[in-house]
Amino acid sequence: MNFLRALLxxxxxxxxxxxxxxxxxxxxxxxxxxxxxxxxxxxxxERGFQDYFAARRIPVQITWRDLNRExxxxxxxxxxxxxxxxxxxxxxxTSVTLGVVGTYDAxxxxxxxxxIPVVFTLVAAPVLAKIVPDLKQSRRNVTGVFHVAPTExxxxxxxxxxxxxxxxxxxxxxxxxxxxxxxxxxEVSKRLGFAVIAKPLKLDxxxxxxxxxxxxxxxxxxxxxxxxLYLPPDSFLGTxxxxxxxxxxxxxxxxxxxxxxxxxxxxxxxxxxSRYYAIGQFTAYKAEQILVHKVPASKIPVETLTxxxxxxxxxxxEALKLPPPLPMFNYAELLNAPGQPPTPExxxxxxxxx
Amino acid sequence: xxEKNYLWRIYWRLAGVIMVCVxxxxxxxxxxxxxxxxxxxxxxTEQKAATVAASVRALVLKATQYGxxxxxxxxxxxxxxxxxxxxPEFTYAALTDLDGQLLFQRGREPDGARDYFRQPSVIAVGxxxxxxxxxxxxxxxxxxxxxxxxxxxxxxxxxxxDGKFVDNVLLEVLLDVVVVLVxxxxxxxxxxxxMAGARLASGLGEFGQQVERMGSGDFTAxxxxxxxxxxxRLLRRIDAAIDHLNVRYEFLVGELEDKLRSATGARRxxxxxxxxxxxxxxxxxxxxxxxxxxxGDEMNLNRIRAPLFAFILAxxxxxxxxxxxxxxxxxxxPGFSPQVVIxxxxxxxxLIVALGQPYLGSWSERVGRRRAMLIGASIATVGFAxxxxxxxxxxxxxxxxxxxxxxxxxxxxxxxxxxxxTGHNNRAQGFALFIGAIMVATVCGPSIGGIxxxxxxxxxxxxxxxxxxxxxxxxxxxxxxxxxxxxAARPSRAPRMRExxxxxxxxxxxxxxxLAAMPAKIILTGVCFYLVPLYIVSIGNTxxxxxxxxxxxxxMMVMIVPLSASLSDSSLRRDRYVSIGLIISGLSGMLLxxxxxxxxxxxxxxxxxxxxxxxxxxxxxxxxxxCAEEIRIYGHDAVYGVxxxxxxxxxxxxxxxxxxxxxxxxxxxxFVAISALVLVCGIAFTIATRSLDWQPVPTTT
Lengths: 354, 701
Known about the structure:
A: alpha/beta, 13 helices, 14 strands, 18% strand, B: mainly alpha, 5% strand
């Protein structure tokens, strides 16, 4: 319990990082130029990213570009990068990052960026996505931040909400990162003693993944007596969660556990996630290493936060009649309380009894 | 002439009055503090329960504000469990609705709880938005009940405090008070002896010598510096009178010589009677200046008592918590179970003391007793200080070895100091003083040490021991620097290997040593120094409790040993005392078969103390009795040397045997098994000595 609580205790990474004070080394010279590409518009990650520089008084000039989920926009961005030659590139998510730097074993120097440092963020599994070969040293002009909590910590968080004997998983069989997480869950299940029923989403005639049949699969899972539906850090699942997966789960009265804040936002009951804002701050810290301290990106480890936030959507809990256990009110971040929704900040800052 | 015993009687009477005053004062203070405690404890505990209840209530209210129905709360038992974990005195918690229906509960539900929940007065509190909390007794528990209401009343929270908890705390306090009382008594006696007794003894000794000298006609003037007390002033007046007498005598002699020189013939004849008279005075009395005397304070045995007490106290203080401290610094040694490793420092300590003593005896003779004690106390001080800073088990073993070396040095040298200054007639008295200082230290040490360890921690407690050892250095430094050799004391020597082997295979000697002396020591160190401190802490008690246990043992020794020593000399045969003692010791651990409560452990220590006290005095006397033949062959020193060596090896074996037993049978099993071992030895000893009939030999040490 205490392990979990320590892990979950909501923390602002900036407090740890801002310790050495003002890093305004460049106040008199020109600001650092950052070219930032997002996947689906501005999120809390970008807010944390910008706030970090502001708090540290590091002058930056950020050029924001949004892929808006259209891979066709990428060549234009790459062309602009080569023309304007920024000091650093910021990439949001696996798709954008791969579009800018390619995989480490098959990138094309003529299209991909190699001579400008790239800092990625919100990539669930950077090694599996072949962005970097090793988390400790990228061995290329790339570093960044990933955002998924260790699988076992997620499973334990799930158990502390409601103990279970069996969990169901829906995943995209063509997404390597999802497949690997499913394997990890199976690994943990052997140790902790529970059953895992994992169902891959269907592929259409063109071998493209489709959400068709997903609600039926969820009903099947319910009939197979799973206690939870686990949502892995799966990109396609993320796009379908709000419209298909979560409504089907709610209909089947199956509680859902999210592995990312994005999935949490689509309406999952609870999840152990990295706060996007803190992820953004941590990404900015990596950027600072490159821009201010002139550390080569290849020497900066790819990391995630050491603390995660346990989020609970109270409206979902109410609808499922599954209130969080009483001790969880001490440390969980409670979202969307029915009636009088307090802000997440106020909820997490409310003094606990101890 | 003033009777010396008369003054001693006055001293003891005075000491008695002081002790009575101290005891009465302490008893009054204890009584009132206990009453205050009694009065404050219950409200304090209730207040604490109310504070905890308020935090649980805050959590419940937070949940309801987030939309969870009061009746549908989940994981309330889990929260209660966390509360119990942090507050072991709370044994029950419950959440009820406004009608007193039980919704959630955890812990031991006391009889009548359901009725209590539904009492109108209790429900009224739940409905009263201004009510804070209400305490009442339900069954054996003390209930603190608190209303839960946000904008409207929701229900009630009840927390049950274990009634035994309050009683236990009060008992703890009472026991601490008793410990403090006993320790202060012994301390007062010791201090009194140090401040008044030792000076009185030396003053009286000096006075007695002076009177004796004058009685034998010695009126030579001494150039002694007299103390500024009653006896000193008296002596100074005697000195003045002697000076006056000497002047008168000189004047008389001078006048007579003058007259003799000037007188002639008949006049000279007339002076003859005066000359004869002067001659007879000269033959009967002595006048003039006395030769400088070595005799005096150097012979005072009492002065060894304070430094010895301080030094032994330093070591004894660590007894009640050393195993727990070792447990904290434990590093796993491959091939050794942790239980054995915990006993290792005690084993090594005892082993060094056992093996070092024979050699340190002659060493202290060579370098001088005072110097040997100074060196020993300094080494031990370093040992204690370093132990308090120990990094892990390995360096702890080294520091404890230093303490052991220092302990052995001081012990042997102090023993030698007493030997040097006593003859055959007052040796027993000298050793009584020596043993007395150690006994008092064993009464005071473990209990104080336990209280210290609980309040300031193990490391600081060791620092206190280092400080005590440092004080003993200062006290030793004040001992007379001149060494005295008693004509009665022969140079001591360590037993030779040949003698050790011969005695090891000697049936009579080993019956006594192997079946009585060694088992007695094994159960002593195994139970008192190893099992009791560890077991007590393992069942959730404190080091202070372990200290109290060891004090019970020491008090038994102090009270019973003198009794059994005089009894075994007169009434029963000595070997019967040893038999009875061993069998009682052997039965002690069996008590744990009955129950595992710490009160039973008091019984164990009590019986063990009783058994040991009965047999301990008789045991060493029996050596002379049983092994007269061996003493004739190998000599008194060799037989006693080997006896002591084996006995002390028993000390080292105790923790080892106990720890191995713990591995196999756990703590309770180890208590029982080690007692059974001693019981078997006791029975075997009884059978072996039953048919034999020895002539009692006068006690020698």
